[in-house]
Amino acid sequence: MEIICISKNELKAVITNYGARLMQLWVPDLNDQLADIVLGFETPKEYIMAHEKYYGATIGRFANRIADGIFKFQNQKYQLNKNNGKNHLHGGVLGFHHQIWEIVSVLPDQVIMKYNSKHLEEHYPSHLNIQVTYTLTDENSLKISYNGQAEKPTILNMTHHSFFNLSGQNTSILEHQLQINAFDYIPINEELIPLGYYESVENSPFDFRIMKPIGADIEQEHEQLKRANGYDHTFVLDKNDQGKRIRACTLYDPISKRQMDVFTNQPGLQVYTANFLDGSDIGKNNMAYHSRSAICLETQHFPDTPNQALFPSCEVNPQEGYNRFCEYKLSIKR
């Protein structure tokens, strides 16, 4: 396992090829004081031993959940490994987050890694070649690009799973402010599996169309919040059915004045308020990570897509390839 450091302008990122994951992201505040805004550990080995397996990781083959670990594709049934109760989560036990990626190239502001996923790995069809590129841009962004080529038609849904806290401290993120470019979200059942339809955010705690504190409505007596113990839901991004670059959301910390705008060409944004962190992971600076000490903003296709007829397709064909990205643009709101 290797560690790579890249930097540009005022940003610095530390990345490991274990899970092609982001270990650190250093960003200045209003007073030009740098802080690391992602939860994690000092060494790659600690990520292996952690209770939470996805800190900063590249997720695949399929981000989020697939009900009962079963899907049908091209008239064939596939039984995936179950690693989240009776369901399949984030590509399974040996998903992309648990692989040692090959480092292709390293530049001062960019690192490229690749992974060859074999046919029926975690029981997914087709051999798959994947490349992940981390780039620090001139616009003070961390851009993560996913490029894949399948040997045969298959399904694919990749995302990035950093736990963000813009304060750079191990504190609650409930005072962070969030705005999401979405008129609808996807309700879930008791096992956090989508119910298969979109629900308007209007007159609900899921309405983030206008920026508000994350904690403003999180304790409301709402069945969806009870099921997830907070936010763990996919928001249907507005006007993104054509795969164009759009702003998915804006996260802002009123203390440090750091702001993060998230851009993507994916149709959904999974918002997760770290509800299942329970203090058992001791991370950087010997701090225990607790529930709601960070937020994940995962751009992706919708959960359980292969089993949901109304959701946009996540099929990948050899002729088309796979080209997705997520861009985290950092700035100071003065």
Domain count: 1
Q: What is the C-alpha radius of gyration, as a whole number of Å? A: 19 Å
Q: Into which percent range does the helicity of residues fall?
A: under 10%
> What's the count of strands?
28
Point out poorly predicted stretches.
none
Going across the major beta sheet, what is the strand order?
A: 10-11-12-13-28-22-21-16-19
Describe this structure in words.
The protein has 334 residues and is mostly beta strands. The chain has one domain (3-332): Distorted Sandwich (Beta-galactosidase, Chain A, domain 5). Strands 10-11-12-13-28-22-21-16-19 form a 9-stranded antiparallel beta sheet, with no helix packed on it. Strands 18-17-20-23-26 form a 5-stranded antiparallel beta sheet, with no helix packed on it. The model has no long low-confidence stretch (mean pLDDT 95). It contains 2 helices and 28 strands. The chain is globular, with a radius of gyration of 19 Å. Strand 21 (246-252) and strand 22 (258-264) form a beta hairpin.
